[in-house]
Amino acid sequence: MTQLSVGKEVLSYCNKCKLTLAHIIVTMKSETTIGKVQCKTCQGTHAYKDPSAVKASKTKRGKNVGSKTKKTTQNSISDIWLEKVASATSKSQKYSIKTKFELNDIIDHPKFGPGIVDKLIDADKVQVIFRHDIKTLIHNK
Ligand SMILES: [Zn+2]
User: Fold this and answer.
1) Where exactly are the structural domains of the chain?
2) CB burial class (10 A; 0-12, 13-18, 19+) of residue 68?
3) Ligand 1 geometric centre to CA of 35 (Å)
4) Cα 62 to ligand 1 centroid, rounded to whole Å
5) pLDDT tens for each residue of 119-141
6) Is the backbone of residue 13 left (phi > 0), alpha (psi -120 to 50) or beta?
7) What is the distance in A from the centroid of ligand 1 to the CA of 55?
């Protein structure tokens, strides 16, 4: 094994160049541990980074991502309602059986409160999301 010492060339990972490149040892922590190195490409001085250690930590992180992801619980109706109402651009309209509602229209229902048209089921039926329930309402009569 080659003796490590100040002034010798060593392979280190460079954060600036984002590559494993030849570096010059600037300082030594101990006889066998490199302290700081200078990149021969960008001339930057930084702590020595073992290229094999950099690779290993990256692989580990990648594997952990999948195992940490939990199954997301299904959104409750009020969550969907809140999201839809917040993103809606149309003005709220009083509910009437005679009014023709379009997709994403906000309906002000006397019994169920504000709702948003989620689906046009039929020429005279719409699916409306209210805060606590999804209802099919008759319209366009
Ligand atoms: Zn560099």
Assistant:
1) 1-52, 77-138
2) exposed
3) 16
4) 25
5) 999 999 999 999 999 999 999 99
6) beta
7) 17
25 Cα: distance to centroid of ligand 1 (angstroms):
13
* Residues 6-35: tens digit of each pLDDT: 999 999 999 899 999 999 999 999 989 999
Tell me the pLDDT of the chain averaged across its residues.
87
Q: Give me ligand 1 centre to Cα 16, in Å.
A: 5
Sequence-separated (6 or more) residues with CB below 8 Å from residue 102? 90, 117, 120
- The residues, any chain, with a CB within 8 Å of residue 48's CB and separated by 6 or more, are 10, 12, 23, 25, 34, 35, 36, 37
| CATH (residue range 1-52) | 2.30.30
pLDDT at residue number 67 = 46
Expressed in angstroms and rounded, the spacing between residue 50 Cα and the centre of ligand 1 is 14
